[in-house]
């Protein structure tokens, strides 16, 4: 009798996605939604990348911990991720902070978010738990990381990016030996250590951790009883394991999913207005750094039932057109010129208007003769006739939020405040 092949470890694992953070550096974009619920790429939300990676890796048990202004995030998951079937041993549980431990205790840290749901993780009866952040954009096969974890006998395996040493001070940095064992975990060090054999680069934590559940369960219970702990993976759990256990680094380059079009592993923290705008605009490049058209590794999301995009008028100076741009369904480009821009679902642009390097979130309306450049338009914004943005930095900053990189964020509240002031 032939021996059965080893099953994928993902079938014995669950993904626990931490999605409770606001993402305050995104300013008004997170006034109404948590950072993982922020729109990205024309159709998706940021959290769809972590969830899609887990699903594509073969993981069918997931939990998402939410906290800050979670309604839009929960609604998105209910609408777009409701296809898991319990009779097939598939689960996606949404775990809002709900004072399960005491009436005055919400999630106190990333580790505490798991600790408060130990009973739920126990009910999954899994061997491995992979802890994920719900607010990064990347494609990764977690099965490869799970394999390394199991084969190395590690207590924890930490997903790591290779970053230039000069930039590594913004991250938690791993100091590793030549076997990949983590010897020190340094939080935003002034002088980051280089990598063995590569002193110009450092290994930075991605906030992705793989544990055997039995081991992590014991650590979380001990951490919960420590009055000096901040109950955080990066600050408490991981450094303690580095000191007293066996922590191994997993390099993202070994499990990054690339279709053949990408030239290098792609990972982005789109946590600032500039980074968010740039990552979206990058998708309009002739050969983008991230291939979202890869059917072998799709980014699953809530697909609204909407009509196709439409381009109307064909007159001089009044031609509906889009060049080097992504235009989602239900958009009507009416006598407008769109260049190097990304329009989400339901955007309307009217005659004689022009958009260049603009990220327009769903259901934005751009009225006649508006001229917009280097902008992020929040959901539902109505741009008035003739508004010019991107030509005069001082005028832009007077009414709207202008980033250090020169990107202008516009919300409907800002438009209304401007209108009231000009009356």
UniProtKB/TrEMBL annotation:
Catalytic activity field? alpha-D-glucose 1-phosphate + ATP + H(+) = ADP-alpha-D-glucose + diphosphate
Q: CDD domains recorded for this chain?
A: ADP_Glucose_PP, LbH_G1P_AT_C
| Family matches, as InterPro entries | ADP-Glc_PPase, ADP_Glu_pyroP_CS, GlgC_bac, GlmU/GlgC-like_hexapep, NTP_transferase_dom, Nucleotide-diphossugar_trans, Trimer_LpxA-like_sf
Task: Outline the extent of the Nucleotidyl transferase domain.
Answer: 15-284
Enzyme class, top EC level, equals transferase
Glucose-1-phosphate adenylyltransferase/Bifunctional protein GlmU-like C-terminal hexapeptide domain location is 307-410
Name the residues annotated as site: Could play a key role in the communication between the regulatory and the substrate sites. Answer: 67, 106
Q: In which pathway does it act?
A: Glycan biosynthesis; glycogen biosynthesis
> Where along this sequence does the record place binding of alpha-D-glucose 1-phosphate?
107, 172, 187-188, 205
As for family, the record states: Belongs to the bacterial/plant glucose-1-phosphate adenylyltransferase family.
Q: What is this protein called?
A: Glucose-1-phosphate adenylyltransferase
């Amino acid at each position: 009798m032939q021996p059965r092949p080893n099953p994928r470890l993902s079938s014995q694992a669950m993904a626990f996605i931490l999605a409770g953070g606001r993402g305050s550096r995104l300013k008004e974009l997170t006034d109404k939604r948590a950072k993982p619920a922020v729109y990205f790429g024309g159709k998706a939300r940021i959290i769809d990348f972590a969830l899609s990676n887990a699903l594509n890796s073969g993981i069918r048990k997931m939990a998402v911990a939410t906290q800050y202004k979670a309604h839009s995030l929960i609604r998105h998951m209910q609408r777009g991720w409701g296809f898991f079937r319990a009779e097939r041993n598939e689960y996606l549980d949404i775990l809002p902070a709900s004072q399960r431990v005491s009436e005055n205790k919400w999630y106190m840290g990333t580790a505490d978010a798991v600790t408060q749901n130990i009973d739920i993780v126990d009910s999954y009866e899994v061997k491995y738990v992979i802890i994920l952040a719900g607010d990064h954009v990347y494609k990764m096969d977690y099965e490869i990381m799970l394999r390394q974890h199991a084969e190395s006998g590690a207590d924890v395996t930490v997903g790591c990016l290779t970053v230039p040493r000069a930039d590594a001070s913004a991250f938690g940095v791993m100091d590793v030996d030549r076997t990949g064992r983590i010897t020190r975990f340094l939080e935003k060090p002034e002088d980051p250590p280089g990598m063995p054999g590569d002193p110009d680069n450092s290994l930075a934590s991605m906030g992705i951790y793989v544990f055997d559940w039995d081991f992590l369960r014991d650590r979380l219970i001990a951490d919960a009883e420590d009055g000096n702990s901040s109950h955080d993976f990066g600050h408490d759990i991981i450094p303690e394991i580095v000191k007293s256990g066996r922590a191994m680094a997993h390099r993202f380059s070994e499990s990054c999913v690339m279709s053949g079009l990408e030239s290098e592993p792609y990972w982005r923290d789109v946590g600032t207005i500039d980074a968010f705008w740039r990552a979206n605009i990058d998708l309009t490049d002739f050969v983008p750094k991230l291939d979202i058209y890869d059917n072998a590794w799709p980014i699953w999301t809530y697909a609204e039932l909407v009509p196709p995009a439409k381009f109307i008028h064909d007159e001089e100076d009044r031609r509906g057109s889009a060049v080097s741009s992504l235009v989602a369904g239900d958009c009507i480009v009416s006598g407008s010129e769109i260049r190097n821009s990304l329009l989400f679902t339901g955007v309307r642009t009217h005659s004689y208007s022009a958009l260049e390097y603009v990220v327009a979130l769903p259901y934005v309306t751009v009225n006649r003769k508006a001229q917009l450049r280097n902008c992020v338009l929040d959901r539902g914004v109505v741009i008035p006739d003739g508004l010019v943005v991107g030509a005069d930095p001082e005028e832009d900053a007077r009414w709207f939020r202008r980033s250090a990189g020169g990107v202008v964020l516009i919300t409907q509240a800002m438009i209304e405040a401007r209108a009231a002031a000009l009356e």
